[in-house]
Amino acid sequence: MEQVSLVLFWFSFALYVGATVLYAYQFLLRRQKVGWWARFLTGAGFICQTLSIGANSMANDGTPLTGSNQLVLASWALVLLYFVMEHVIKIRVYGAFLVPVAAAMMAFAQLFGRSGAGTIAPDPTISMQLDSYGVGFHVALIVFANAGFAFGAVSSALHLFQEGQLKHHKTSKFGRRLPSLATLQSVTRRSISLAFPVYTAGLTLGIIRAIQVDVNGWWLDPRVMVSGIVWFTYATYLVLVYRHDVPNRTASWISIIGFVFVVIVAILARTLPSGFHIFGL
């Protein structure tokens, strides 16, 4: 089954790369038929990736929560969220930005997963305790939430670019293909509004597990502390957007800063050689 999983993995990666090329072509030239084929390849890649994850899970009696597998799961969640949001908001330009990210995450997963670079061995006693208490569900929630935050960060970056173009009375072929400022901001709000409660649930579950296994000083782990900063940043975003009518530019920067902290957590979890909260590559 591992061989089947690997073959399906590379099939899905190739389909995502092909979709990326078609999305870029469709985004620049607005050819509807090309856009249909891009979405078809993305859907086929998503199915292959789903089957690959399933085959890998069967081969290993569950999906190991290594750094490489987390990247694969994150890319899968990002594509799934893309399809959901596309169906809800009826905007199809996001594939040109999100599918390449998913493909890049898969490439990094394969590169670092096979090279063994950055391998960290956490305390086996703590690791076994955490696994026995179902840490997988905690990780899955965080992965899905991070996909939503990534979606919001992309929308925020596009919003800042579009706003800068309008502010300086400039226009470009790229800018003309983007949705309106109101639409971009709406997508950001929806993405973060959906991801935040999922992230909160994931953090809560992680805290409960840490308390149950009685890990001394778990709250002092840098990964946990930065995760708290992520939560606080997005909580601030939601309060300011829905209660205080903060300027859209400010809201966009908060969204991007929040995702920067998400990336920092991902790096810390794979590079710090000590602590209980380690998911090394």
Helix percentage: over 70%
Q: Note poorly predicted spans.
A: 114-133
Largest sheet: none
Tell me the fraction of residues in β-strands, as a range.
Answer: under 5%
**Count of individual domains:** 2
Tell me the layout of helices and strands.
Layout: H1 2-29, H2 32-59, H3 67-89, H4 95-115, H5 124-132, H6 135-167, H7 173-176, H8 181-212, H9 222-243, H10 248-271
Keywords, separated by commas or semicolons:
281 residues; mainly alpha; 2 domains; 10 helices; 80% helix; 0% strand; flat
Any overview of this molecule?
This protein has 10 helices and no strands. The protein is mainly α. The longest helix is centred in the middle third of the chain and has 33 residues, at 135-167.
In short:
With 281 residues, the protein is mainly α.
